[in-house]
Amino acid sequence: MSTLDPKEIQARLQAFKENPIEEMNRQPEKVVIQNENAFGTAFSIDDIDAKRYLDAREKVRGALLEVVDPDTGDKAPFQSNDNAADLVDDFQFNNLQAMADANLTSAKIDENPWSDDYWALYQGILGNRYSDPNNPSSRNWRENKDYIDSNPASVILQSGSTARINALSPSEKYDAIIGDSSGALTQAMWAEGQYYYDNFDEVEIWMGICHGWAPAAYMLARPTSSVTLATPDNVPITFYPSDIKSLATLLWANINTSSRFIGGRCNDKKPATDPANGRNVSDDCFDTNPGTWHMTIVNQIGVSKRSLVVDVTYDYEVWNQPALSYQYAYVNLNTDQTSKNLADAMLEIGDYHNDPFSRYRSNRTTHIVGVAMSFDYMVETSPTSEETDTPDKDAIFNVEYLYDLELDSSGEIIGGEWRTNLHPDFIWTPSATEKAVTSFENQATSTWSQADRPLPNDWQSAAQQAAAQQRAPLAKIVDQLLVFSNGGSDRGDSDDSTTLDDLIEKIES
Hints:
The protein is α+β, with helices and mostly antiparallel strands.
């Protein structure tokens, strides 16, 4: 967890006083905490300049849920879709002093969400033979597809070459173990890009399934070791941790699950701003309120001890990142001095000199407190053929945010103002007991508990139907792969969580 630098915070606040418009539009610096080989931006300079990433991000959101725009009109402390209690698992604190008394000024979830690829469409999603040394790995979808067509998986499976077989793509390996000679899942993976290539002559490289990785990374256990499975013809195939992660990511990307969310859209390429201070005056682009952000992060990570997915800034680099940790300090906005003591930073509203956002304050505000938050989150990495996976291989970034919180007469947080327009504006998570399951789980009724034995026939049949009709792996197979990979530990759910079998029984009834 990064340490907040009081001098840097003071410099940022001073810069804001000297040129608030420039500071409000400054991109918050993202610092690599772990793994400099993390995936970077998928957008060209032209895309970035034209802000086409905003349209791209909206397509990703559309895959998650339909966001209802907040009501227009005067800015209220919280919008109807800007309520922290609507998202967190266990909402306990809306009082800043109570948070401090509970030692919640910093927290980290117990286990890192795992990093994974975003499995780009131009590479065939899970059809990407990422460990094949002859794979062109071109930015052109057609070149990648032509290589696969010229080197069919069926021929490689019959070659007897362990190296070539283990270098097949995750979906090809999966099709093989479920006995699907038609390769339905792999066909579905390449068909996604085929549509865009046929209609638009290209497949944009940002397109992928990060919306599946982000929740899977903390809803499912980390696969720690490779697993060698057998096809119905007893051909051994090694599934590396990256292969298992990919199947988990695809499951959560293509199977609809219920999620809780806060925040709105911000697709304006030039949102309206206050000419005096550069603040966004569009309700869409102001969300999420700093008060909502603060209560959400503290109550979810600090109290509920579970991650959530954050659109870390509405820029071109990231839009679905699992949260890891936070820490914050208080800032006296008159002196720009940081403190660990809330009383040192709390100002009565009448004593806050030259408040740049005075016209936007709630009329219930009695006190203002500046906050500097350091926030760590998980980042995508490229898949590898490494036999093991551990948290030290994850990619972690850090970003710092400056904002203030508005408190009412009882000390409750009722709103606030950002010191940057590039702030988190969409936060979501499945509930702790949510499961991504296909419609065919109940057809796999027999037992499969030995990795060196082929899947039972009923599992193969169920998996083939899920692949063909839902473009997803069977959840039971993903779960069992995690069991094999972790020596008996699958999802890491708490004792009172709904199990997959419980859910299937509920569906059947």
